[in-house]
Every structure is written in structure tokens, then in C-alpha cells.
UniProtKB/TrEMBL annotation:
Pfam families the UniProt entry points to: M20_dimer, Peptidase_M20
Organism listed in the record: Lactobacillus kitasatonis DSM 16761 = JCM 1039
Protein name: Peptidase T
UniProt GO BP: peptide metabolic process; proteolysis
Catalysed reactions listed for this entry: Release of the N-terminal residue from a tripeptide
Membrane-spanning segments: none
Enzyme class: hydrolase
Protein residues bound to Zn(2+) 2: D146, E181, H385
Highest rank taxon of the organism: Bacteria
Gene Ontology molecular function terms on file: metallopeptidase activity; tripeptide aminopeptidase activity; zinc ion binding
Amino acid sequence: MSFYDLDFIEKTFIHYAKENTRSYEENHDQVPTSPSQVKMGKELTKHLQDIGLDAYYNEKTGFAIGHLKKNVSDEVTPIGFFSHIDTADFNAENIRPQVHRNYDGKRVVLDEKEGIYLDPKDFPALASCKGETLITSDGHTLLGTDDKAGIVGILSMLKYLTEHPEIEHGDIYIGFGPDEEIGYGGRRFDANDFPNVELAYTLENGRPGDFEYETFNATEAQIHIRGTVVHPGEAYGLMVNAATLMNDFLDRLPKDEVPEKSKGYDGFILVLNATGSVDHADISLIIRDFDWNKFTAKEQLIKDIVAELNKKYSDRFSLKMRRQYENIYNVIKDQPYVVNLALDAYKKLGIKQNIQTFRGGTDGNFITQKGIPTPNLFNGGGNYHGRYEYATVEQIDKLAEVLTEIVKEHLYQTRNGRDEAPLKKYW
Ligand SMILES: [Zn+2]
């Protein structure tokens, strides 16, 4: 049984999926980082206007912003939804979506000649898509489920609400932003575009029932080491080899707190790059942890190692450390309503909740830090960021239903009392 118009979802998803909206880290001084994102941002603005929203494209941030006005006289705080226009760092040229109607649950041929298959043996989650309208790429590009499925879920919800004016709702704000995949979209979002919005959701990956309100805390660090070059034949007591000092630093890092030995709630320190010569050496690393105390302890460890080595080698090390984002739980733990509201909506729809930790960060991290607590729902599909990416029309439909239910539930709880139950702590 479908909630909304499956034909609209299929056509709209394929339409936007075909647009190459890849973001480019190397263009990070441009907003957005690719012209195709401007094009789609403006197209989405028009789409929002056509549905009946007040909408505009913010040239400074690259966000398409929409506002669906409330149709009740109640004092109800505005609610926001975000999804992103850009796609991940993978080939996005000539995306040719393939529709597999009434998917039989078996191996899907993406490119017979080149032997590219989407196989439930490799991706067991595919089994749950049996009987649905499965959409894949042709095996040579990504599909862009992340996050065009989120965009289409939002458009479907808006269309449903405007076609059913009897459904009461408060003010709804929409943000379709660029450059999420490279960490710039949410950082540039202007909260003035979401006046008085009290709570919002991102629609990042996962399937119906998934929910995330814990993400990493994140810091990056650059360490520069100065050496002293002298002729090797006359180096005794004079040469300081920066590469040797670099190795001393690397040796002191914890051996087990690395991504390849971490899962669940574990944090890590990852050396992204270390290059050294006699003259100088550079190390770049990132720190990730859910737990604030463990996170700041890791930051302190790096500072301590640098201090220790500066003592040992008379000030050859310099350190630049920068916080990238903070766990949204740090804020959301004191504002449980935003979580409970979504979980109550799942319950009303009979969707089994699956609360997960997100071993990364999203636009929600930056938006939460700007004062709007923003946990993550889902967008449907799977295998994000690569040639095996897929979506199903039915799961996007489920997303539209969930978004509509959240809007209804928010008004209901505004009238009848909010669910402020404290959040379960997972660590
Ligand atoms: Zn995404």
C-alpha cells in the first residue's frame, strides 16, 4: 500500500538523479563547489514555488529555501527539513538510472559485458527490497540516492500536504543545500533563512526506522617539524633530521585507537598523511570520538606528545589544531523532544525504530551548533557513494509518510503536551 503518488516519486527521482551534482573539495572557496549545484538549487527553488511554497535561492550559501505556511491559528513552532543537492566523490557523468519493477530479490545485472552485478549475496539488505520498484545505476556511475532520495521524500510530503489542505500543520521550512559531502554545506547554512525554527531533521542514508542522534566529535591537526640540513659528511652533532623526528612522533600514537580497529562507540586517531625530509616534515591527522571526555583526552594527547618532543628536540614541532564539528548529542541530550517526536511518529506508523550511532558527521552537526537541534532520519535505499547505490520508490514513499506524520505529530503534541522523556544514553 502506498502513501503517496509512486509515479511522481519515480519520475521526480529519476529526473534529479540524472543531474551530475558532484561536489569538489578542491573548489571549496566557491559556493557551491560546482555550477551544476547552482542549476539544481535554482530548479528546486522553482519546484518548491510550483508546489505553493514561498521559496528563494540564497546565492551566498547555495541553499534553496522553502517555507510552507501554517494553516492553523495555534502557536506552533516551525519545523525544518534538510537534504543535500550534491553527490559523493564518485563518477557522476552520464548517470543512467535503471528501473527494476517488482524486483524479484535476485542478482541484478548492471552491465553484463563488464560483469557488473548488484548481488544480494554481497549486499544482503537488498532482500528487503523484494517486490518493490528498485532503481539502480548502470554500474558505471553512482545513482545519487544520497541525497536525492531525501529531496524527493520532502517534495512528496509537501505535495501531499498542499493537495490535502484538510491536514492541519504548523510552519514548515525546507533547506536543500550544496556540498554536504565535503563538509561545507551545513557550515555555510544561514540560520536566518529558518526564522524561529526550533527543530529540524536531515535525511541522510539508512532505511525506514533508522534514526541517529549521536555523531562523532571531530578535530583535525597539522604538525609541522623543522629540521636542520647540513652536509652529511660534516653533520656530526649538527644535523637535525625532521623525518627522524616525525617517526618519533608517530611511534608515540596509540596503536589500537585507529579506524581499522574501531567500531560502535570507539573513537580513533587517524594519520591521513605523513611526509618527511631532512629539512622538514608534515603530519596531518584527524581525531574522532563520540564521548566528549575521551575526545578531549585525545586532543590533549596530541598536545602532550608535541610538548614532550619540543622539550626533547628544542622546539622543532609546531601544532595547529582545529575543531571540525561536535557530536549533536551534546546539544540534543538537553532537548529530547526533537528525538522523541520522530520516534513517536515511527510508532504511530508501526515502523520499528533502529537507533544507530553515526560514525561521521553530517550537515546536522553544523546546523545543531547554529542553534537548531538537527538529528538524522533516513532516505531509503543503500550502498551509498558508489556504483552499487540503489533506491526504491516504496522506501522514498515511506519517507514522505514519516515526514508528514512528524508534522502532524508536532501539532498534536503542541496541543496535547510534548513527549519530553529523557533520552536513553547509549554509552
Ligand atoms: Zn549524504
